[in-house]
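[Automated response] Your request has been received and processed.

Submitted sequence:
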Amino acid sequence: MMNLARAPKVHLALMASVVLLMAAAGPGPQAPSSEFSSSTIDLGVVVRDVQKSVDFYTDLIGFTEVPGFAVDEEFCRGAGLTDGHGLEVRVLVLKQDKTATSLKLMSLSGVESKASDNAFVHSQLGYSYITIRTVSLKPALERLKEAALADENVFAALLEAVQHSSLGQITQALYEVGGEYRRNL
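Generated structure:
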């Protein structure tokens, strides 16, 4: 005959043993959280002048260039990327970590690519813009000041600054390096 007074203690000991075995075995098989191996999306952009584009994104926006790569003509043709032209791809990142989105810039020599109609977001189908989230507007305004002080064309720096800064912030940054403009009357 079984001692009923001991039954709860036996059950508790058995349950504790099972819990300890499960903890020692580690977590069981888990369903994958996503069918994708990464949440990062890389963007490939064909540009007219790859060096000017790299200069713009590195000098004015703040990207860092990392090692790029080449894609040979045969692979490009077989994959439907080009009609037989190879690609030299320059890779830019905002942060150097494995989850950083890459901006992959390329141009093809001897090929006349069509410019996009970017008058409005709805002017054409496809990608229309990229959003770059910043912690501070200060670096963009500093790049604008540096361009103005170096007597460089400030247009590219100004285009970047207007994306992130108010007219007052831009005016103040330019005032700090150039003083106040006064028309002769």
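Summary generated for your ticket: The first strand starts at residue 43 and ends at 46. The two ends are 115 Å apart (CA to CA).
If you did not submit this request, please reply to this message.
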